[in-house]
Write a structure and sequence with these properties.
single chain, 0% strand, globular
């Protein structure tokens, strides 16, 4: 009886692990949708630009994650690899949430002054919450310094902290 139970338990674990492996990652879903939208000529230019930012932000996060995972000076345990992968998915999700929150607040703003205030707040929060402290400022600030994009945010942002901070600051306005 114990052997049958153990075999059933192992079979259930194998099915669960296989289902998790087949489940598409959050960062990939966000990237694929953003890439498709950014390259769709039927979409308005503002939508395409926001999608381009999302795709580039996820790509930046993915490259940083890959760099950490391929660092030959460290031997990562399975738990550490899982944690790094979870961080990538979380950061992608919160970046997506951050951009959506920005778009909502920006479209809600009535005057040009209010719109500038929203943009300033979101820019400030993104730059003040770095994730990697990346020294490649040209890359990190590639959208931050672009006036032709509304998503003027730093690519090197801890999006979890940034969402929490911007929500708190919006609440206290």
């Amino acid at each position: 009886m114990k052997k049958i139970f153990a075999l059933l338990l192992l079979a259930c674990m194998a099915v669960t692990m296989n289902a998790q492996e087949n489940q598409e990652r959050v960062f990939k879903q966000i990237y694929d949708k953003a890439f498709k939208t950014a390259n769709d000529p039927k979409e308005p230019m503002s939508t395409r630009k926001a999608a381009a930012f999302r795709a580039d932000a996820v790509n930046y996060l993915s490259n940083k994650t890959l760099t950490v995972m391929t660092d030959t000076t460290r031997h990562l345990t399975g738990a550490e690899v899982a944690s790094i992968n979870n961080q990538l998915d979380s950061m992608a999700y919160f970046m997506y949430d951050y951009v959506n929150l920005f778009n909502k607040e920006y479209s809600r703003a009535k005057t040009k002054k209010d719109k500038q205030s929203v943009l300033k707040l979101f820019r400030e929060v993104s730059i003040n919450n770095p994730l990697y402290n990346d020294p490649d400022r040209q890359l990190v600030l590639s959208y931050y310094n672009r006036e032709d994009f509304l998503t003027q945010f730093s690519l090197d942002t801890d999006w979890v902290k940034a969402v929490a901070e911007v929500k708190e600051r919006l609440k206290n306005r």
